[in-house]
Write a structure and sequence with these properties.
Elements lengths: L1 H8 L4 H20 L1 H4 L13 H34 L13 H38 L7 E8 L2 E6 L4 E5 L5 H4 L17 E4 L3 E8 L4 E5 L4 E5 L5 E6 L4 E7 L12 E6 L1 H20 L7 H15 L1 H4 L35 H7 L15 H12 L12 H7 L1
Parallel strand pairs: 1-5, 4-10
Antiparallel strand pairs: 1-2, 2-3, 5-8, 6-7, 6-9, 9-10
The structure holds copper (II) ion.
The site of copper (II) ion has 7 residues, from loops.
Length: 404
Amino acid sequence: MTSVTLHSLAGGSSQASARLRRSRSRALAAGLLLPGAAAAEYKFNFPEPVTPIARETLHIHNEFMLIITILFVVVFAIMIYSMIRHRKSIGHAPAKFTGPRGALQWFWALIPFAILLFIDFVLMGIPAVQAIVNMEDTQTRADMVLKVTGMQWKWQYEYPEAGVKFISTMSTPREQIANGEAKGEHYLLEVDRPVVLPVGKKVRILLTSTDVIHTWWVPQFGVKRDAIPGFLRETWVLIEKPGTYRGQCAELCGKDHGFMPVVVHAVPEPEYLAWLEEQKLAAKTAASGSDRTWSRDELIAEGKVAYDKHCVACHQADGKGLPPAFPALAGSKIVDGPLLDANGKLIKDSHVDRVLNGKANTAMQAFRNTLSDVELAAVITYERNSFGNHRGDMIQPAQIKSLR
Ligand SMILES: [Cu+2]
């Protein structure tokens, strides 16, 4: 900003432009000296490590920094010393690399080479390889498994042993993002449902994706691993300290890449087990919801909540979408079409089919495995009765259940 104004002003009298140049270089110097002023949350070091891997990574980083600093100082000291002491202007005679002294030169060249090899392969290579092997060792004495699935633009977490599964979406209000409201403390780093993990347990983490490549990254865990569609990748954490740890998707994955944070709650094991029981109970309650008959208003109310969580990023709050990438649901022929055929069976490419099964090779994913019967019935009913769509009909969670 400053430099732009200075640029456009420069070109007046030579005296004025000299003054401008001076103040510009002063501004530049101040900028270089005070990087903290520019970055709001500037921290010099790594964030506090809370897993063995993060600690090892930090340790190796520090060790390598020390080694290369020493190398830098020693090499440059010798170089600068030699250049000054052996310069032509004081009449230093060049060495002659012939005869017995010439052979000695080889010796002096090979010694530093050997020292460097030793530093590279032994002092740096061994700890680095050890750390990588350790990072890859996801299975030795793993206490539990967490499955992480990246999707545009949210994370799904699954505890296979407990049969618990849920979606975690960013909870920062859109008003804060649009600068309509002051930013909160955990701006863009907060979610509706954090993953809960026990401290002191080795958690094997399996990663995959349903659409494009995402990356599950929590700096304090020292974990940053790609979630790739069609592949199962793995990593592990052993969290040593209870707390809330925040991270982000670290692979450019489309429009809302910046809006799919990771939040992990690390708690003592009894607390974790109690939480897990709660989740199982909640899942059971949700499942029983598909057996009763819902009123249209109930479904619409529930559907708005699901829509704002799972659909709004692409189809927008007003249902107008962002054509041509994301079609409008307002006035859509599919949304305005029939629900099911006369026998209560699925019609191909109908509204219900599209939401349950998605459409291959588009950003419209299948929601049958990520949403419950109630959520699916509710969001479909909501879409048919919102954004100026007035179908006036509804679909019951029990009907969705029978379609599965
Ligand atoms: Cu992503």
